[in-house]
Each structure stands twice: as structure tokens, then as C-alpha cells.
Amino acid sequence: MNANQQKVVKYYTNLETKLGFDYFLGGSKHFGFYPTGKEDINEKEAQIIHQDLVAKNLDLKENQTVLDAGCGQGIVSTYLAKKYGSKIFGITLVPFEVEKAKKRAKNLNIQDKTSYQLMDYSATNFSANYFDAIYTTETLSHSPDIYKTLCEFLRILKPNGKITFFEYTLAPDEKFSEREKKMLDIIIDGSAMMGLKKFRHNKFTEIIKNVGFENVKEQNITKNVLPSFYRLHKFSILPYKFIKLFGLQKFFINTTAAYEYYKMADKGLFRYCIFTGNKPNKFEK
To answer: Which of 4, 60, 119, 136 is 20 to 30 Å from the Cα of 94, by its Cα?
Structure first.
């Protein structure tokens, strides 16, 4: 395991991270989607709507073979396999997540529809043209080389296969204050989001196109995810007062992110987007 992979594993095995995801997000690694006019639904409902949006953007169908790249504890993949009948392969760098995902699949009686293993999504052992679809939910920012990762996705995706990425983007550096830049750097380093600064507003689609994908589109859904950001921000306000007072941000990354990300998103510095596209039907390397 290289240094970057170790950083990802260290982040997800950190006690604050594990408790935060389990307690505040129910084990999920993604935010919720709040439809306009329904901002008062609970987080669990919003997460389920988010998961259905993954299926909608992939045009998910029964018996398709799908990759969840950075599957976490299997929240999204088991839901999609159970509801839509697709065969979903989940890969992650974090050993305990594989075991939790397998246990979840067993409890839902969908072992035949799911498969989980330790693997780097930038260098998989899947054969070329294997998957009908590939999706990510807030995991691509962990890639230290997004071009390499996208090239791998293109290799293992079938011709005309679809991609859907639910990911963050950032405003240009000059839009951030010096303090905001400092906080962003602390969060990026502490949460192993090595590639996040490659994800810029209205620019990431060009990277996806340049790799070879076509029909690439970006949907900015920040306003629908902002209630989820605010929920975590609200819980972080009190502890963050002490964290900030003593300069302990790098030791409490998730509390710091919960506090700072909402403020950045509210100012337009931080977006939450859906990226879609497909591999050309006649793809030439």
C-alpha cells in the first residue's frame, strides 16, 4: 500500500471519522438530497432520494453489472442492488468497510447481487469492457491522479457504458480568503482528499471529456444538498468553538469540515455536483 492509500485508510479508520459517519450519517459516506419544497424531510429520507438519483442518472436496469468505486460500508450498493436488481461490485481501500458491506448484503439477502473487495479504483484487476456503469459518491477527491483514475474507468467500462459521479467542486483560489485557504488545506490533508483541487467549478467536465468520455454533463445540486451541510454544521458549532480557540483543527478534521464546508458552500466557494457521461460506442484508445 503506497503513502496516498495509507492516508485514505488512516482517515477512515480514525475514531472521529468512524463515529461521525456512523452517528450522523447512519454509516453512509454521502450527503442527502432535499427536493425543493421538501427541506423539512429527515436526513435518512434525503439520503435515499440521493441514492435513487444515482440510479436515475445511470438509467440503472436489472442485471446490469455496475461498479461502486469507493463503496464505503455498502450503503448505496446494497440499496441499489436490492431495489433495482443490478449486480454491483463495491471496491474500497479500507478493510473494515469490506466486512461491513458483506454483512449488510447478507442481512438483506442480496449476496448474489453484490461483491466487495479491497482494491484501488485507479488500478483495478477487472478486465476491459466489463461494466455497464460506474458511479462514485464523494470518493473521487481521494484520487491523487484523477486522470489515471478516469482512464481506468474508461478501460473497464463497456462501449456506451455510463458514468455518474456525485462530487464536490471548488471556486478558483483567488475567491478564497487566506483563512479559507488555510482551512481548506487542513481539511484536504486531514481527510486525504488529494485530488480535490483538480475539481474546479465548471472545469471538471473538460477533464472527463479529455480522457475520452462523451456527452459529459454537470448538474449543480448544491442548493438541494445544503440542508444536509447545514445539519452537520449546526452540530459542529459548539465543539468547534473550542477546537478553533486552541488551534486543533487538524486533530478534528470532520468537525472542522462540518463547520467550514457549510460556510464555503453558502458563499458559492464549494459546490456539490452530479457529473454524467458515457464511453463512446466505438472507442479507440
So the answer is: 60
Model confidence over 132-142: pLDDT tens digits?
Answer: 999 999 999 99
- pTM equals 0.95
> DSSP string spanning 68-135?
EET-TTSHHHHHHHHHH--EEEEEES-HHHHHHHHHHHHHTT-GGGEEEEE--TTS--PPTT-EEEEE
> Are 276 and 164 contacting, i.e. CB atoms less than 8 angstroms apart?
yes
CB 243 within 8 A of CB 130: no
Q: How many residues does the chain have?
A: 285
CB 167 within 8 A of CB 275: yes
Residue 236: name the closest of 268, 262, 271 by CA. 262
Q: What is the DSSP letter of 273?
A: E
DSSP 246: T
pLDDT score of 27: 73
Strands 65-69 and 131-137: parallel
**Which residue's C-alpha cell is 469490506?**
98
**Rounded Cα–Cα distance for residues 9 and 26 (Å):** 19
- Phi (first) and psi of residue 112, to 5 degrees: -75, -15
pLDDT tens-place string over residues 48-88: 999 999 999 999 999 899 999 999 999 999 999 999 999 99
